[in-house]
């Protein structure tokens, strides 16, 4: 799995997940349960992961829909 997107905004993660699934690209959201530790204030970013083989296609989907890829390069 490769990290596609990192964001503190759960709506961006949900939108990106829906776009990817619509294109037939499997994705997995990580760090969802960190809200237990942080008290649901959104300090820890959530990560959206895709298979390594799907990374390039997923990046194109994000770019075409105006979603900035907030992850370390």
From TrEMBL:
UniProt xrefs under Pfam families: DUF2007
Domain named DUF2007: residues: 1-64
InterPro entries tied to this protein: DUF2007, N-reg_PII-like_a/b
Domain of life according to the entry: Bacteria
Name assigned to this protein: Putative signal transducing protein
Organism: Shimia aestuarii
